[in-house]
Design goal:
The structure holds 2 protein chains of 2 kinds. Chain A is built from 20 helices and 2 strands. Chain A is mainly alpha-helical. Chain A has 3 domains: 1-50, no CATH class; 65-238, no CATH class; 280-503, MetI-like fold (Orthogonal Bundle). In chain A, strand 1 and strand 2 (130-131) form a beta hairpin. The radius of gyration of chain A is 31 Å and the shape is globular. By secondary structure, chain B is α/β, with parallel strands linked by helices. Helices cover 43% and strands 18% of the residues of chain B. Chain B has 24 helices and 19 strands. In chain B, a hairpin with a 5-residue loop joins strand 4 (130-133) and strand 5 (139-141). The termini of chain B are far apart. Classes of the chains: A mainly alpha, B alpha/beta. Chains A and B meet through helix 8 of A and helix 1, helix 17, helix 23 and helix 24 of B.
Chain lengths: 505, 517
Amino acid sequence: MRQISSLEYLSMSRITRAWYKFLSFFAGIPRAIGRFFRSLPAKFASLGRKIGDMFVGVWDAIRYGNWKTRLSLLFWGTGCFAYRQIGRGIIYLLYEILFVLFMTFFGAEYLGKLGTLGTVETQELPSGFKIVGDNSFAILLYSMLTIVVIVFTAVVMLKSLRDAYSNQLGYSIAQRAATMKDDVGQLLNHKFHLTILALPSLTLALFTIVPLMFMILVAFTNFNRNTLPPEHLFSWVGFDNFTAVLTGQAKGLSQNAAKWSYTFWTILLWTLEWAVLATVSNLILGMILALVINKKSIKLKKFWRTCLVTVVAVPQFISLLLVSKMFLSNGVINTILGYLGMEPVRWMNGSTNLTKAMVVIVNLWVGVPHTVLTCTGILMNIPDDLYEAAKIDGANPVKMFTKITFPYMMFVLGPSLITTFVGNINNFNIIFLLTGGSSGIPNAKLASSAGDVDLLITWLYKLTVNDSQYDIASVIGILIFIVVAFFSLVVYSRIGSVKNEEDFQ
Amino acid sequence: MKKTLKILCVVLAVALMAGVICALAACGSGKVIMVWGPSDHKDIYLDALKEFEKTHKSQLGGYHFEYAGSGDAGAYSAMNRDPTTGAGVYTFANDQMANLKNLGALAPLRGENLQWSIDNNDPAAVNATILGEDANGDPTYVAYPLQADNGYYMYYNKAAFRGTQVWDKTTDSLKSDYTFRDLYAALDEKGGDWANGLVTWALGDSWYISGVFFAVGGDYSITYNDKGQQTGSSCWFSYSDNLDNTKGWGAPSETLGWDSKAADYTVGRDAYECLKNTFTNVDGSVNKHYLYSDGDKDPLNDYIDDYTDPNSANHAKSPMAAAICGTWKAKILQTNWGDDYGATILPKLETDDGEQFRMKNFRGYKHMGVNPMCEFAQISEENLQLLHELAQYLCSEEMCLARFRSTGAGPALKAALENEEIKNDPAITALNNQYNLECKYPKNYSIEALRGEKIGNGYGYRDQDSVPANYWTPIQNFGNTLFKELNGDTAKERFATDNSIKQYLAELQSEIYTAAQ
């Protein structure tokens, strides 16, 4: 889009200006993406430098170290023992022994099978007794654990070498190396962050990083209901699952590839439609309600706010289950319609579009109170003198809204809109509890168990819980992450509160 | 102060870690053999397990039993988490048999165990435990028959029909030859409270709709290897004038599996007309006495409870006069209807030309399986054998009787079936009458000649020995779309013309076929 001068901008009519702003927001998106990718090499380079720095010291230690230092590479702690750091030396040596034991009796076995994910199949004896073979699941999981352990060990090993080298250097100067007491003292004082973060980091690695690596790698295997371990083996399939889901081209394994891909794109489209509809409708209605409640002439302000807070106070899934019952074919709503002499309506089990509309409407009921509360907070923060000044200048209420209230609100709401949008992309509760992901209208083109109102996240749930299609589910999970990351990054870098931070006074 | 804070931090961190380790350690402790079954049979099983534990103490080697109510339908999803930590002995519905075998969670029955199963149980139920063939070409039996009652029949309120055209005065029960439209007409005839009486059957549930397809001569076939993996399947629910037409719809003639040239291709049309005529008037409008139900959003089970409950508002407005369901509703209907409680065989179905078929039952079973993957069975072959013994013990006559008394569950054990108490139960009688019905097809379907023993068995049921991988969804879609279309809820008119019916049936067929690959 062509850049225009301020003069040109000011000479535009109001509508053209709004249109220009609207367009320039979207026109800026490619540039923002470009900037992000251009910045990537620099980020990787700095990461590389940091890793490189770690090895520089190591290289020096090997080059200039004496025999004690060099021997530390093989028998960790040698460099410590030699300089009477007995405690530290024992810890290094003990760690080395533990690591060797770990690798011999556990890690090496699994890591060795990582390439094939197991070759020994489970056998059944004539009596029906099972001799369980390789477990692909365990192999993949424990290999990840082993890799994390190896990386950590490498860091410890290098640390032991550097310790030895610094002992060697330090000893020639001070004739004394740090004692155990010094070390403990340091860990409790200026290295206290290490002490306190050690356990959290360990748990993080064990319970977050290992499972995450595992789940990402599942996308590159054929781990599904036909290959469930320990009865069966699964194996690597490269990018086949991704091509199946994205393009519908199968390379041998997923025969239903065309279906996977059709389902994915259909559901992705509805997911985005839903996220936009739900976010925008909530914002608009919430804002209007907040303005109304905040109006000076409105009585019982606290009462109205309490009413709205009540909705927030009831756990969401309870309200949703209740509402879903209300709209059943023989539910409360239809019974009331019956008393009024009207035909019952199949609200959420008769037509795709009506069901989708109902979901958006019910979402208003659940989501609007949050928006109202946020907006109320912002409204109460807008200084009154702005309005007084505007009034003196002869501005009408509409003008005041468009020039003061709305910009002020958007500035604060911008980042929270992103979270709402992303939250809506992954809004499991509403869709699943209200509709179960389907309006009851069958769509034979969708892959098994996917329904016409499913979001990606509810489909993902069904894929894992009902269908045991872990391979495809993992691909969907990764794709959801990409979609969400894309929208968050792009929109975040384009909103006013980030671009013009200092504007907010 | 600062120092105290620091020490506190360290202590808290260590405590956290210790907590995590303790929690992890707690998972793996205890020598337990899990037994899974329906939660409403919990007490029955707990007593039996205590007894078994007492008599087999030495063989159990310190292991003890624990019971969890997974429900028969939930066995697969529970086992799917990890068969090695799953139950040692468990009950399941027969449609999960292949999947469970595929998990490795079903030990085959051999030698004495197999002989026990064959000698003591209803042959049809034993047949239903076969899954594939072993290397010698012999059938593999993978479970013990537990219940042979997983079928449906008609419950009815005698007060609603007494004295009408469908009533048989001599036996004070419903005539055996009746159609849905007869029931609707009888309700109009009866008038009074029953002018708004309802008849329900789960048109939106594939298990029930299948009965209509089988009634008119449709069928599927499926083959498994002994690992529980599907090796082939074919399905025949289609409707076409000649073979070439079917090709364009994704159902090539080879997939039909049997000699398709000889086949009569109006099965789908008959099924469609019969389905439609169960809830419509002659002019095509939906009859006011029909209450649509399915297994999910308009739940059959809830409707039956609600519309027969004397205290409910729905009952006051429109009481339920008849419903197709299974033994699990026997107790509640007996309570709600009292002396007017009745049960009988399924109604007759009618095409637009007036040709009649007897609605068939998609006969399901519940089995008891032994899991060779569980911790206890993995220790030795003797342990596995002990679990087989336990399974046989849990299938014994007194257990069958206890289950029958508690929930009306119909046994598969011959000795229990002979028991007077079970024999005289109206629900079990209706079910057995349905099973023993002679059902010959009015049309001379070649399929009957081709697969004489299996579907064309000439009786009122089709064995649910195994089902193609994605059988349930397309069939269910067919039923509830049909209702919604004819009820005028959707704009799409899939059933408007002869061609669109053909098209839809072909899609249905190819769905089942392709999903099975």
